[in-house]
Structures are given as structure tokens and as C-alpha cells.
Amino acid sequence: MNIFFTGDVMNRKKSPSKSSPTDPLKFHILSNRYIVLDGHFEITEYTNDYIEFCSNSLKTRFYGSNITVKELGDESADIEGLFVRIEFS
Amino acid sequence: MILRLLDFLSGWVQFFVSGSFCDVFFKDCRFYGIRLYDIKHKNDGYFCRASVSDYRRLLRIRRKSRVKIKLTKKVGIRFLLFRNRHRIGVPAGILLSVIFIIFASNRIWCINIVGNDGIDESKIYASLEKLNVAVGVKKNDLDTRSLSHLLVVNTPEIAWSAFNINGSVLTVEIDERTFAPNTIDQKSPCNIIADFDGIIENMEVYKGEAMFVKGSAIKKGDILVSGITELSNGVTVFSHSNAKITAVTNEAVCFELPLTQSVTTNTGNVNKISAFSAYNLKLPLYLTVPHYKSYRKEIIEKPLTVNGQKLPVSITDIIFYETKTNTVTYSSGEVNDMLKKLIEEYELENLSNAEILEKEETFSQNEDTLSVTVKYIIKKSMGTEQKITVTQ
Lengths: 89, 392
Known about the structure:
The complex is a heterodimer of chains A (89) and B (392).
Chain A: E1 26-30, E2 34-38, E3 42-46, E4 50-55, E5 58-72, E6 76-88
Antiparallel strand pairs in A: 1-2, 2-6, 3-4, 4-5, 5-6
Chain B: H1 2-10, E1 12-18, H2 22-31, E2 36-42, E3 45-51, H3 52-65, E4 68-75, H4 77-83, H5 89-105, E5 110-114, H6 121-130, H7 144-154, E6 158-166, E7 169-176, E8 190-193, E9 198-207, E10 209-210, E11 217-218, E12 223-226, E13 228-230, E14 236-238, E15 242-258, E16 260-278, E17 281-284, E18 295-306, E19 309-329, H8 332-350, E20 355-365, E21 369-382, E22 384-387
Parallel strand pairs in B: 5-7
Antiparallel strand pairs in B: 1-3, 1-4, 2-3, 6-7, 8-12, 8-22, 9-11, 9-15, 10-12, 13-14, 15-21, 16-17, 16-19, 18-19, 20-21
Helix pairs in contact in B: 2-3
């Protein structure tokens, strides 16, 4: 029997959702070095040179170098790197 | 800095995630509320950082996501303690340090006295000790308000005091009392009497009646200026005599020194030992004490200071100089020089206020001693006030 500090891992956290899945994903671009994502999204691809998110069937791809996800939370992500281009598809 | 410390206290792990379904893994992490930090892509995988509790939950998710997780780094106090679990000294040392810090932070370790110019610090420290204020006392036991009053009451030289506690440093601020100057009594009647035997050289009487004239021979205790003046109409007037009198007198002094003297000199052997002092505790930093038959000891205390604040921790160096006592026979010329030095010292000490008119030195030698008799004729001021008691 495993006892976990935070309870059963397979139970989803019952924290209230801040936004609904239909809400648009918000980008806070702080110069070309730091981007904060706020909303529902999924990381679909991630390498050192680009990172791709999918939200409401809109794919957003940030191109750059040394891309690091500083913090990946429930409904947010802080991304650091040297960004050069944003692509929507 | 604080965030790093909190991270260290709570503990975190770095791991490498690899596999075909890393995107699913990240999605699941977010679904189950697991926060990941510093995700970096490298060699078909991702380096991530997570808290210890989140990492334990991750191990269940990986089966579902079909990814491999390899632990690369563990940082935190719990890992540090676990690594050193067999070393009793480490946790014991940490525990002792914590106890010592708690103990030390509740006590006074340094007393600074501010504002004293004329009063000696040792006197104030003695007064503080009488009030049970010393290095090592509990901060909570000090009633600063009543202590400041008691210090003023117990020490008459202090007019005002304040006790300020800052951390483990007690600062005693004082203000010295200014005493009223002693007033010179110019009213009560008095005579002026002779201090020594001699001949009056000069006499200027400002008040009172002169009993002698210039050139008169006087004896010690003679009334030079009388404070009682009888007028021609028979009325007696009492006055506070005032005069400036100079007299010539003889003085003789004799010095004697043996030709053979015992002289103590250093042999050149020096031995230094040290001791560590903390509060009232003294720890010797030596195994043996030098065994010299005769020695001279020099103690040098070096207190530890931080930002100019003296701590109750110090290193005391005790230096032993071995000495030996030799019997030296001097020539009469050398002893003469020594005697002349003694005469110079005597003149500097006793005759600095007098004018030497004549000086005659007579040297004489016995079997093993040399002596000198110095006869002086000196001119110096004389006169001491002697109160007149008037009864009706």
C-alpha cells in the first residue's frame, strides 16, 4: 500500500477551473525573451528551436532558440528563450 | 534568495523524461495538477524539475503515458539528512547549533557604554554589575526603565541614563553630571602662615597686616600676614588675608647607591601560550605551561569584533619571557651617572615650582656604596591660609 502526501494521484485535483475551454488562450509577450500563456492549451510539440501549443483548434508556434518552459501549471505556462517568430495555423 | 532557500527546505528533484508520448505526459501532468519547472529539450527527451511530492505522483502517471523517467538530481534538506543518516555528528551538530543560537539570541553578549568622557568605564561596569547587568544575562530579565533610574541613583556622577537593547548588544547611554564649582571663600577671616624656614625675599600684602618685612628670617608656622587689624580708634577688624610672598630657603637631600647591584635581564627564551575565552569560560589552547624559574609575563587580549562591535569571545596570548638575576659591580663613574639621574628626577618632581639659586653636590664613597648630598638654596613662594576662629 502506497501512502502519498497529496492523496490519491489518480484523482483529479478538484480546484475550480479559472477559465472555460472555449475561452481564447492569452499570450503575454514580455519582450522577445519571455512569454506567459494563460488559459486552456496543450503542448503538441516542443524542441529547443520551437514550441507549439494547441487551443480551441488554433495552433500557435513560437520559433526561437534555447526555449525553456520555466513553469508548467494547470492553466498557465511561462516560457523563456530568444523568440524570433510566431506562427498561427 | 528566499525562494531558493524555500526550495531547498521543501526539496526538489530533476528528472529526464523520454519516450514517444511526452506531449501526453505533459498533458497528464497538467490534468492532475502537477507543476513542472525548467523544462528543457535535450537528446529526444526533456529535463524537468518538480517538487518531491509531485515527483511521487508522476511515477504513477508515467505508466499511462508510456514514458521513461530517469532521476538526475536530488536537492533538499531531506536528501542531505538522508545521505548523512549514518553520521550522527551532522544532525547532532545542527541540533546543537540551533540550541546554541536560541540560547545565545536570548542573552546579552556585549555591553557598550556611550557618552562618558570623565567617568571611567570600569566604574560604570562596576555599577552595572551591582544592578546584575553583565554579559550573559537574560534579555527578558532586564527592566530597562527601572535600571536606568537605579543607575542614576547609584552613581552620583551620572545625571541621566538609558538602556537600549539591540539584538544581543546592550547600549548604555549616559549623560555626565556637571557639579557646581567650589566657591573660593574670600570672606572668612584668616592669617597667612609660613610653610618652611627661610628669609623673606619679596612680600606683597593685598589684605591684612604684614607681621614681617623683606629680609626677615622666619620659622615654619610663623604668622606672616595677620587677619586681625586693630585700628587707631581701638576697633578690631577681621579680614581674609591675601598676599604674595617669596622666600629663600635651604634644602638638602642625600642619595645612596651600592656599587654591587642585582640586575634582572631577559635570557632571550620566549614562550607563548594562548587561551580561548567565551563569556566566563576559558579554554586553554596549550598542553604545557613553560617552567621558567623566573619570568616576566605579558598578557595580550584580542577580542573578536564584527563591524566594530566587540564580541564576548576573545583569544588571550600569554607571553613568558625568561629572566635571570645577575650581580653586577659598577665602577664609581657609572654609579655617579646613576646618582646624577636620580638628582635630575628629584628636581623635576619636587623643585619644578622653585628657582634654584645655588646647588652644591658632595660625593662620598664608602666600602661598597657611593652617596651624594645635594644642598640647594632655592627661592619659592610660601604662605598657607590659616582660619581664625572668632567667638563672641
